[in-house]
């Protein structure tokens, strides 16, 4: 957020899909995290309340912190919401609903290209998982209006929850969670307007969330589960690795974040701040959030 402070956001409540699930934040300004603050809920009126989902924080080029999140009974029926924080007051604006058909970033942060172009990685899911399709929501005016660009995939291939990288040649690469036991990728050469057919990478993944970041001095970092999927959603999520790539194509593990016989360490988020420090957070066995700060040596 500036001044060396970091903010985390999450959804919490009785259990996923329960109407009492709301969005909370906490800030770390001097090595300690503040008490969680409720910043958004799904209250419609005195008798109707919906659960909240998947908060995503985004610091834009205007030094605004935007909180995107979802409200609704399920991932197939939810809608996108957002609120903007006054950094000086650490106060959030009234929540606003995104335009019809625009969900906002589903799991991972948007990227900003130039002064006004914002690319927001998104996806849709049907109730029983028959449909998983990734797309990118594009704003050419800093978030005032939005259009959608779909990421195509072969029949039977399902992808969701993209994360976006800016390549040295100006192209944009989307890394995708998929049902193929590997991370998939797609590339745009026209600032997100069109995308190549999703293709497999060599990076294993058990159909679990990933995140990646383009480093300020070149290269890329990605946080992912390297396991194999199983009958249960948690299978393959007992390990969590950090990988590095010089070009965004070939990846090599550089740090093992978690390595257990069982448990779930998943849904990572990763950013690099203005001082070059890497910040990583992820779900720790579905009960806590773990935060890691790393100094990257880039000469």
Automatic annotation (TrEMBL):
Record-linked InterPro entries: Sialidase, Sialidase_sf
A family per Pfam: BNR_2
Superkingdom as given in the UniProt entry: Bacteria
Domain Sialidase: 4-280
Protein name per its UniProtKB record: Sialidase
The species this protein was found in: Flagellimonas olearia
Lineage: Bacteria, Pseudomonadati, Bacteroidota, Flavobacteriia, Flavobacteriales
